[in-house]
Structure formats: structure tokens, C-alpha cells
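Model the whole thing, not chain by chain.
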Amino acid sequence: MSKGPRHILAAEDDLEDRFMMQEGFREIGHPDKIRFCEDGQALLDQFESSGTADIGLIVLDLNMPRLNGSETLRILKSDKRYSHIPVVIFSTSINEIEKEICLKLGACAYVTKPSTWTSYIATCNMLYKLCTEQTLPVTT
Amino acid sequence: MIEITRISLENEMDLILAHKQSMKIAELTGIGIAAQTAFATAVSEVCRNVIGKDTEAHLLLSVSAPKTQPKYLVAELQDDRKNYSAGKDDGFLYARRLINDITASAEGGINKTTLSVKLPNTTRIDDQVVEKWQVQLNSDPDISPYEEIKRKNRLLIDLAEKLKDSEYQYRSLTESLPIMIFTIDDHGDIQYANQWMLDYCGQSIEAINANRWRDVLHPEEYEEAWRQWDRNVHDMQTIYPRERRLKHAATGEYRWHTGISIAKTDKDGTAHWNTYMVDIQAQKTVEQALKDNKELKEIRETLEEKVELLNQSNHQLAQFAYVTSHDLQEPLRKIGFYSDYLDKKYKHLLPAEATTIFNNLITASDRMRALVQDVLAYSTINKGAFKEVDLNIVLKEALDDLQIAIEEKNATVNMQQLPIVEGNAGQLRQLFENLLSNAIKFTKEGVSPVIDISVVQKGATATITFADNGIGFDNQYIPKMFNLFQRLHTREKFGGTGIGLAICKKIAEVHNGEISAEGRPGIGASFSITIPIKKP
């Protein structure tokens, strides 16, 4: 395991959501803490080629092309190489059934995408803490 | 005793006949010539005094029953003379000198004078012999036209008696049957009708004929019935009337009848129709019930099809509402984000007059987000797998969610122990939250809200009432209040999407319950949910 600062890798196909999250991390003073890939497949490909040494937290959008959030989660949690990395599901709507499935599959949190700038900042803070301090799973 | 013949005694000619028949029967039964004369003369003597006395009298000539000993020929005079005394009757006294065996008796106003002559032992008496004697007595050349008339008359009277009997039996049969039996002539007039028909119609034959059945036939069938009669009457055909409604005089009810008219032509060429009609009301009622039943079944099937279509349409609409509200959330969230982002980061760069417009933009997007969320919530309420839910816990969670608003408004919530139900905890929490937030929202200026939550259990259901001391409402709005997008106040006065109570109603309904409301303007409102309970 690398001793350098660990990063958050977010699989997010929506450019605007990436902008929002990027702005949130910029606002809390850690613009480089978060990195993006375009979907679940890209995330797995990256792990295969570059490994997971510097990854402290995975954030998965649910609706993505090729490999969606819950499928990606299932693969990650059934692979010994990746199953130790905490995963946060980041979704548009609160869907109780979806939430339950994801938590069962091993997600540590199910977070609804914030609908204001102010709450985005709070969410980014929470994700940052989760990555660096490996705090207890939280759901919002 | 076996009767051989019987002679009524009215006039002198009858007396001669009595004498002649007595002689003849005495001869036939084997009595000697002298005894024959004595017997016949004695009979004449006792009969003589009833002639011309305006009395009912007749003579019976009989013989002993077969196989009895000794055998007798017996003549018996029966009459109803008043104050008759045999001992003072010269005829009787004279006869007694001719015949030893003669007696007189009276019983029930009838005088009986009996003359008996012993028959020789050789005389045979049996049915055959008696019949032969009867034939001989009657077939002997008549002594006079009178005797012939007399005999024929007697036969006619016998025949009439038999006819009378037969007619009586027939009449009592037709009278007692619960069927209308009547005869109509070719003018359509009733000639005879049985008692049943007269009782049913409550009028006489003459009355029915006089107004041409108008009070009997149903007005709707009256003209048609006579048309049918006119069509058939000339052909001398048996008429099968259609089913007719006839008025029952006692109840005023028209009852269905059917029957038949059989055409008959008398010897003199006059035609009449023997008709019977029978009550088929019960059969008609059953027919109608079956028909109604069939129609009901068809209606039900049509309804079921419509319900099926409605269900499909409803389902499609629910899907549409869900999809649109779900998909609308995404761009809305971004509008929310960007307006907040602009507000926080670049508001100071906006000219003052743009600030209000900018604030309106934020308010509008907030409202739209609330609306979309409520529509989504509404469209996702459906009957899923229910679990045991403790409403006390649900209420506590709802109060926790509303903690900030409760504190802000300084609201007091009084509650009772709630029951346990079968249901969806999330939906029930939403229901409680909506009712509580309404109570906190619609308050009177300067009055802290007080919410009383009470429970009344009745059998297997509980009614949970949320009563407040807010602004209340006029009860005329109750029917509309639970409709989607229904608002009672302007948005400026009280915000909201107008979906909250529609959600409450739907949640109550999927829990096999119902919701009701009652308001008193300026005093308060109360909302009651009645749902089946699992445990008290």
C-alpha cells in the first residue's frame, strides 16, 4: 500500500455532475482529491491497468452506460483485490429498494446527489472525511 | 226386498195401472188365480183413498230378497196424508178382509201400508228372474195411451235426475278449479263463467259483457286482444290467446294468464268457444328474474371490461407520473445547484434590480422541485408487501423529521398510545408527517399550534385523529380537499403543492382505510384516519 495521499475515484458519466463535484472539492480546498472515470467499465479497466494503491474511496453513480453502478459494485465486492475499498453510491433519487440492494451488496453509504450548491459542499466534506479518515459508514 | 216396479198415484188411471200391475206380478210370481185377484183388489182398495187427495203417493211392488224363506210378494203404499188413520180408512178395512197379512205404520210424516202374500216354495227368485219380471211388466202391451205416457214420463224423470247429478258434479268441479273456465259466443259475449273467474274479475258476466272486458284486460293489450279475436272468430278455429294480463279485482294487480279457446258449433249452427285461462304469474316472474339476471351478468361483464381498461389506463398514468417526475428531478436538481452556485459565488456581481428576479428564479425552482417530489411520492404509493408496523414508532420518526418546524412554531403535540397495524412504515410516516406539517403550517397568527392525537378503537379498526387549533376550514371544501393539486389558500399565504392530502388519502386507501376531515373556520381542523389494526 502506498503511503502517499489517497484519492477518491468517482465513476460518473454526467459532465455537469463531474463539474459540480469538482467545484465542491475545490471549495473545501482539496481540488486534487477527486478523480473521475466515465463509467463502471472504465473504472474496472483503470484498476486492471494501474492498480488501486492510491484509491481510498470509490464513488459510483447508478445510471451509467456499459456497466452501471450496482453491477460495478457487485464485481468490486466479489473481487478480493478490490473488496476492501469502501464504496459510496451516489444517486439522483432516493429509491428505498435500490438503496437496500446496494447496502446489501456492501456499499458503505447511499448518498442522494445534493440539489443545491451549499449541500454539495457538505457532501464533498463528508466524502473527503470518509476517504482520509475511513469514518463509519453514513447514509443520507 | 227387491223392487220390481213403482207407480205414482195421482188419478183414476193410476189406480187402474196399480191394479193391473199387481195382478200381473202376482201371476208372474206363481200365485194362484184366486189369490191374484184378492191381492190386486186389496191393493186397489188401499190405494183408492189417496187418489184426488192432493197428496204425494206411490205404490212399490217388491219380492223378498233371494235365498230368504219364506218368500213374499209385497205391495207397499207410501203417502203423506195428514191425520191418516188406517183403522178409520174404509179401503184399509176392506183390504184386511181380503188379505191376512196387512199392516199400517207411520214414520216421519209418511204413512206406509204393507200388503204381503206368501209365495209358493217353488217360485225362484234371483237377479235374472227379477229382471225378466221387470221387462215383462214394462213390455206388456199398454192398456192405454195413458199408461204409455206414464211409463215414458217415469223414464224421463229418471234421466233428468241422472243429468242433474252429472251436471252438479261437473259444475262443482269447474267451480272448485283455480282456472277460469268460460264460454263465449261469436259476439265475444260470455255465456257461462265459472265461479273462479267471477271471483277473480269481481264482476258479473253481464258487467264484463257490458263493457267488453275493459276492466279485466290490461289497457296495453286491450285493443290487440280484440283484434286477435276478430281475426280468428270467423274461421271457427281454436284460438290460442297470447299471454294476457288480467286484473285481479281483489288486489288491483294485473296477473299474467294464458289459455286456449276451443271452437264448438251447436246442432242449431250457433258457434261458441269453450275457453280456459290459467294464472302464469309465477312462471312469468321467474322468467323475468332469469332475464334480469342475464342482463345483470352482461352489465357486470361490461363493467369488468371497463374496470380492466381503467386499471390499465390507471397503471399507465401512474407509470407516466413516476417516469416524468423521476426524470424531471435530474434537470431540476441541476437548476437548483446552479442557482445556488450563482447565488453564493456571483450574487455580488449582479445589479440590484436583477437580485429580485434571481430570487424569484430560486423560489420557482424550489417549488418545482417540491412539486416533482410530491408527484413522485404520490405515484409510488401502492400496495406492496405489508409488515407489522408500530404506529408509535412511526409517529416518533415523523415528529423527529419535523423537529425544526415544531420548535420554530413552538408547537405542542399531545398524543395517546397508538396501535400496531399491517402496512408500509415509510408510507405511514409520510401520512403522519403530512398531517402534522399541515397542523403546524395552517396556524393562526400569534397562536402556538397545539396538536392532539387521539385514538378510538372500534372492533378491528382504529380511528386516529389529528386535531389542531389552527385556522380550520369551511366543511364545504371537504369533497375537494383530497384531490390532487387542490389548494384552499393562495400560495402567498400558505405554500405547498396541493398534493399532500391526496397523498394522505392514497396511503390510507392502500392500507384498506379511509381518511376524513372536519373543520371549523377560525377554531381548528381535524383529520381522522380509520384503518384496520393488528394489535391494540
